[in-house]
Amino acid sequence: MSSADGRGPIVVGVDPDPSKRLALAWAVDEADRRGLPVRLVHAQGVPTGGYRSGEVLPSWEEWNRTLHEAGAEVLREAVAFVESRQPTVEMSTVPAEGEPA
Question: Residue 85, exposed/middle/buried by CB under 10 A (0-12, 13-18, 19+)?
Answer without folding.
Answer: middle
